[in-house]
Structure formats: structure tokens, C-alpha cells
Amino acid sequence: MNQREIYTIEVAGLTRHFPLFEVAPGVRIAIFNMLGDTYVVKAAAAALAEKLKETPANVLVTAEAKSIPLIYEMSALMGLPYIVLRKTYKSYMGDAISAETVSITTGKPQTLYLDEKDRAIIQGQRVILVDDVISTGSTLQGMETVVNKAGGTIAQIAAIFTEGDADWSHVVALGNLPVFVDHDHT
Q: N or C terminus of the chain with fewer C-beta within 10 Å?
């Protein structure tokens, strides 16, 4: 097996090595998957909670799945309820609110669903959107659409990493991941 190239970065005081994967011809990104990495989850959640402590908000919202341990830990630290937007509709979700996004990692459209039981938690409330990595902003847009449809207001956007050189000044983040472009393909 080939040795996969890695990108080394510090996140919330911890050093981690992320594998590089090609997501388009000649375009590679560092894949950050915190599932199973309790130390990074706890450190990143604490660092984000600290950065958000002056943000007046009532509820945290994320999209499944990789950000679930992060939002759970942030919820515990910040004393705020959290809601996970689902990617598959289940009948017990009732009269769900949905929005479509396109994932950079799959390149396919996906739909985010807000369970009927969670609508009341968002309605009229100030919401912090939480994600592990914000790259194209497509998932973010989907989350914003769902929160707006449910009658909530976006108070802040938070992520462990932003990705690429877009203007991410409106996002509270702990770091930025570069996008690696092989110029032979351009």
C-alpha cells in the first residue's frame, strides 16, 4: 500500500496528522475525523466554548454525524441544549423541516432534516451553528435554511476548522486547513 501523505497541524493544543485525500482531479484536502479521538473532541469543545462564552444564544445545532461528539461536549460545557439535523428522514420525525445541500466529500446532494420535536426548541431562539470543518459552506447553508424555516436566528457560526482561502471572518474557528492544488492538473 502507498504511504498516504499527511498534513500535521495543532488543534486546541494537540498535534494531529491528517491524511490527504483527492476530492477532485488535482485537488486534495486534509481529512479531519474526530470520531474516536476523545482528547481532540474535549479540547476543541472547551476552546470553542471559551470563544463563544460572550455570544448570547439558547441552543446549539449541527448536522450529523462527525460533529455529534463535539456538540454534545459543547452542550455540557455551555449548559445549552443541542439539536442534530439528520441526513435521513425517519417516520418518527413527524412534520420535519428540511433543506438540501451538496457535500464536498461526496459531491452528491444530501438533505438535512429537523425532527418535529426539535422545532419548538429552535423557534424564536438564538442559535449557534456548529460543524467540524467548514469548506464550501454548503452544509452550513443547509443548516441556516432549516433554522430560519423553524423560526430561529443565527447568533454565531463555530467550527474547529475552516478550509481553503475563502473569507471565513464570520466563523469562530480554531484553525484553517489549506486546500492542496496540484498545478499540473490546472
A: N
Q: Is the pTM of this model over 0.85?
A: yes
Long-range contacts formed by 105-113: CB under 8 A, 24+ apart: 105/23, 107/23, 111/87, 111/142, 112/63, 112/85, 112/86, 112/87, 112/139, 112/142, 112/143, 112/146, 113/85, 113/86, 113/87, 113/88, 113/89, 113/146
User: How is the chain split into domains, by residue range?
Assistant: 38-176
Let me know: does 111 contact 98? Beta carbons within 8 Å. Answer: yes
State which amino acid sits at residue 15: T
With CA atoms as reference, report the closest residue to 35 among 64, 61, 6, 75.
64
38-176 CATH pick, 2.10.50.10, 3.30.1240.10, 3.40.50.11540, 3.40.50.2020:
3.40.50.2020
